[in-house]
Amino acid sequence: MSVEKKPIDWANLSFGYLPTDWRYVSVYKHGAWDDGGLTDDPNVVMSECAGALQYAQTCFEGLKVYTTVDDRIVAFRPDLNAQRMYETAKRLVMPPFPVDRFLSALDEVVTANKAFVPPYGSGASLYIRPYMYGSGAIIGVAPAPEYTFRIFTTPVGPYFKGGVKPLRLLVSEYDRAAPNGTGHIKAGLNYAMSLYAGLEAKKQGFDENMYLDSQTRTYIEETGGANFIFVTKDGKVVTPKSPTILPSITRRSLISVAREYLGLEVEERKIELSELPEFVEGGLCGTAAVISPIGSVTTRDGEVFLPSGMKEMGPITKKLYDTLTGIQYGTIEAPKGWIRTIV
Ligand code: PLP
Ligand code: COI
Fold first, then answer.
1. Does the CB atom of residue 246 touch ligand 1 within 6 A?
2. What per-residue confidence (pLDDT) applies to 243?
3. Is residue 144 part of a domain?
4. pLDDT band at 175, cuts 50/70/90?
5. How far is the CA of 250 from the centre of ligand 1 (A)?
6. CA 245 – ligand 2 centroid, Å
7. Is residue 4 part of a domain?
């Protein structure tokens, strides 16, 4: 498969928005989703009284599409994004977008934008942003009468600047909690409410926040846009178990990779902040973050440095990273059903 690619400096892309030629749109009216299709219009017009604008009845997903070593265009576990968005929609009293429709819409919009899919070896990928919102007017606090599902795509590079330079995190004084088992709910997960907290941390020279559980402020939860993994002194991978973090597909995949590809022991459990000094490596994991190593975490009692250091990823984190990205780029055989070949 060879296509004329757009003249983009792939290797130097950051995690930014670069509009591509096509986006997908489907509208739910009078109790049913329409057939949907592609549009070249990147602008959204809706009522001033739309449920999305007034009561934040809106959610999104995030996944990536890659060019593999053998020149296929593939998506990584998009069925899990479709399923998570389905659950999120139900929680927000929105009509769920059917999983099979989500997958065929993905195929359609990626195929139309294939000239924007970064080539193998560039380190970049096509980020896919499905989102849904109450587009109908509603003034009483109630679900909107009409919904829109859209997918836009944008070629992206690394989420954190500086490659794999370990990050400095600040334990946040602010709360952040996701409604049980759901995905990217903009109001519920407090993406907007996290902006202030994130900027505060950055002003103080940190790269990101580490959020604790809101109820007891004892357990490690997640960051603004990623989950956590840690490695213990005896080489065990541990990752927070909590109903109030986003159920990361990357984290779920890394648990399998650690167990089945690397033969490591994995524990998904509550992790106390006070356990930090016992870890030798740590990382942020997510679609955008992939695995970004943690260098230090600053708590009220001072800065805790992880033994893996401030220069590079720890060895187990690196093995996880190499295996996961190998599966995504087709250099390592994927578990059955993880890779959807689109083109
Ligand atoms: N946590 C939050 C708050 C996120 O926004 C994301 C991003 O998607 C993740 C975790 C990671 O989830 P996933 O691995 O499914 O991308
Ligand atoms: C993702 O990793 O897809 C995210 O959603 C993170 C952030 C850009 C919101």
1. yes
2. 87
3. yes
4. confident
5. 8
6. 13
7. no
- Give 147-178 as a 3 state SS string: EEEEEEEEEECCCCCCCCCCEEEEECCCCCCC
Q: What is the average per-residue pLDDT within 271-285?
A: 97
184 Cβ inside 6 Å of ligand 1: yes
Provide the CATH number for the domain around residue 152.
3.30.470.10
Q: Quick one: pLDDT band at residue 191, thresholds 50, 70, 90?
A: confident
Structural domain harbouring 25: 10-157
Q: What is the pLDDT of residue 152?
A: 98
Q: How far is CA 332 from the centre of its chain?
A: 22
CATH number at residue 183: 3.20.10.10
pLDDT on residue 192: 79
**Is 226 touching ligand 1 by the criterion CB < 6 Å?**
yes
Domain end call among 157, 179, 201: 157
The full length of the chain comes to 343
Task: Check whether residue 224 and residue 265 sit in a common domain.
Answer: yes
Active site residue 270: no
Q: What pLDDT does 81 receive?
A: 96
**Top mutation candidate among 193, 287, 320 for ligand 1, by most atoms within 8 Å of CB:** 287
User: Is the residue at 111 inside a domain?
Assistant: yes
SS3 label, residue 81:
helix
Strands 125-134 and 32-33: unpaired
Q: Are residues 184 and 306 in the same domain?
A: yes
51 pLDDT more than 90: yes
Residues 109 and 228 reside in one and the same domain = no
Comparison of pLDDT for 122 and 191, the residue scoring more: 122
Contact between residue 72 and residue 48 where contact means Cβ atoms under 8 Å apart? no
Cβ-contact 68, 178 below 8 angstroms: no
- The whole-chain average pLDDT of the chain stands at 94
> Whose Cα sits closest to atom 4 in ligand 1?
225
Give the chain's domain count.
2
Is residue 190 pLDDT above 80, yes or no? no
226 contacts 292 by C-beta, under 8 angstroms: yes
End of a domain among 129, 157, 185? Answer: 157
